[in-house]
Design goal:
By secondary structure, the chain is mainly alpha-helical. The protein has one domain (about 5-520): Sodium/glucose cotransporter, CATH 1.20.1730.10. The protein contains 20 helices and 6 strands. The strands form 3 sheets. Strands 1-6 form a two-stranded antiparallel sheet. A two-stranded antiparallel ribbon has the order 2-3. Strand 4 (about 250) and strand 5 (about 255) form a beta hairpin. The N and C termini lie far apart (about 60 Å).
């Protein structure tokens, strides 16, 4: 390992040590009770709520996946996705946050999403709770795998060591940290990590644009690639099979493109549909439930939106400027997701590059600890305690939580073994899963009092199942069916909730009165 690599590693170790210190600082408070461990005792301030929600949401795909998409095929795919996410973020904070914070307290002081849905409909048989917990387990395991892939790619690219070994090292670090500190440590570190992420993105885009000869030079280079800088066309890299992998062709020292393909209205709607996912994202919704005062959500919304807009815009532009500076460095879709790493290590002094690399680690940790904790709580609190052993002590729930963390992490590591995995693709599937399974149910639960327990079950099952059916059975047909699975699954889940609820008998008066009380509160 040369001197430069050692300096980068040193900077990253300093960062990781800071994260561990945060975990130790909050470990005692977190382990007082399961409520503290899972929801931090509803004690988050507006800054921590906003930054931890967005940092845990964006994950490593913000620094690797999104720039990789822009680098590979230009502006359209990445930009429309970013726009959809920005709009979805705003609407979620605007219309969901306050009512969910209020309703989760009214509904038996619920501290997990499955518990909220179960209490909202006053169910005795816990079908909603069990189904919601199982869906969380499935999709968060996929999500966690995407974070472990990010760790593996980061360390493998930086240090030239085997991908699988580096992925396991990163996964073990995240796992130990999550077991140690719980929700409070996770949220506090996410606040710090959100700051690191946005600084890392901003520093790299400024320096790399300067290296490229300025903004005009970057734009001029992008315009020379057909469809690369267009919102309604998409660049098509010319590829050839190399060792079974589609690899972009290089001629005369330049990457070759097969012209531009149309980017139609249906595809745009498909990408904008990413915004629908926010209504069902447990890691974001839990922050709404955990803030100390409902009135502080307005300030949190403003903080969150500033962070999101800047981060998304800069991440997309990094892919554009990266194509000019290192146009033949990354010739596969998988490799394209390393453009942020390439820019950082080539443009910064080693120590600074190490701290910027910590931005990727920050994004990964801030997400994977959320995913692991929420998935583990879904099983321990909602299935083990809520269904299997209702007289379980708090200590037993905490023990099962940690065992579940180990199992989920092990499964996620197995899923992340393939180093050719594309982070953006993995995240998009898990995002669709949560958005379609919980998004419609969350909106109808909060804003339509006629929603029934059977309608809730129908919506969850329809949404969750259609994500799999559409992606693997219908989308391969192509044409109008080749759209992002979140959009049709979200629509069909909403229809299922409405139809089944209307066919079912009305909710009890107690449920209706509770709904009205929450709706009328200021």
């Amino acid at each position: 390992m040369d001197s430069r690599t050692m300096q980068i590693l040193t900077a990253m170790i300093i960062y990781m040590a800071a994260v561990i210190v945060i975990g130790l600082a909050f470990a005692k408070a977190a382990n007082k009770s399961s409520e503290n461990y899972f929801l931090g005792g509803r004690s988050l301030g507006p800054w921590v709520t906003a930054m931890s929600a967005e940092a845990s949401d964006m994950s490593g795909w913000l620094l690797m996946g999104l720039p990789g998409v822009a680098y590979w095929c230009g502006l359209a795919d990445a930009a429309w996705t970013a726009i959809g996410l920005a709009v979805g973020t705003y609407l979620n904070w605007l219309i969901v946050s306050k009512r969910l914070r209020r309703y989760s307290i009214k509904a038996g002081n619920a501290i997990t999403l499955p518990e909220f849905f179960s209490n909202r409909f006053h169910e005795k048989n816990k079908v909603i709770m069990t189904l919601a917990a199982l869906f969380i387990l499935v999709f968060f395991t996929v999500y966690t795998a995407s974070c472990f892939v990010t760790c593996g790619k980061l360390f493998s690219t930086l240090f030239g060591l085997p991908y699988v070994s580096m992925m396991i090292v990163g996964a073990v670090f995240v796992l130990l940290y999550t077991i140690l500190g719980g929700f409070l440590a996770e949220s506090a570190s996410d606040f710090m990590q959100g700051i690191v992420m946005i600084i890392a993105l901003t520093v790299i885009v400024i320096i790399s644009t300067t290296m490229a000869g300025g903004l005009e030079s970057v734009i001029e280079n992008a315009r020379q690639i057909p469809g690369f800088l267009d919102f309604f066309q998409i660049a098509v890299p010319k590829t050839a099979e190399v060792n079974g992998v589609a690899t972009q062709v290089v001629e005369s020292g330049k990457a070759v493109f097969d012209g531009a393909a149309p980017y139609g209205v249906l595809t745009i709607c498909s990408m904008l549909a990413w915004g629908l996912g926010y209504f069902g994202m447990p890691q974001v919704l839990l922050r709404f439930m955990a803030i100390r005062k409902e009135e502080e959500l307005k300030a949190s919304r403003r903080i969150a939106m500033v962070w999101v807009v800047i981060s998304l815009a800069v991440a997309v532009f990094i892919g554009i400027v990266g194509r000019q500076l290192f146009g033949i460095e990354h010739l596969t879709k998988t490799s394209a997701e390393n453009i942020f790493i390439t820019l950082a290590t080539s443009s910064l002094p080693p120590i600074l590059a190490g701290f910027v690399m910590a931005g990727i680690l920050a994004a990964t940790i801030s997400s994977s600890d959320s995913y692991l904790l929420i998935a583990a709580s879904a099983f321990a609190k909602n299935i083990f305690h809520g269904v299997c052993k209702k007289d379980a002590t708090d200590k037993q729930v905490m023990a099962i939580t940690r065992i579940t963390l180990l199992i989920i992490a092990a499964v996620a590591m197995i899923m992340a073994v393939d180093e050719n995995s594309v982070i953006f693709t993995i995240v998009s599937f898990a995002w669709a899963g949560f958005g379609a399974t919980f998004g419609p149910l969350m909106l109808f639960s909060l804003f339509w009092k006629r929603t029934t327990a059977k309608g809730a079950v129908a919506g969850m099952v329809t949404g969750g199942a259609m994500v799999f059916v559409w992606k693997y059975c219908i989308a391969p047909i192509g044409g109008v069916f080749a759209i992002y699975e979140l959009l049709p699954a979200f629509i069909l889940a909403s229809l299922a909730i409405v139809i089944v609820s209307l066919l079912d008998k009305k909710p009890s008066q107690e449920i209706l009165d509770e709904f009205e009380e929450v709706a009328k509160s200021k």
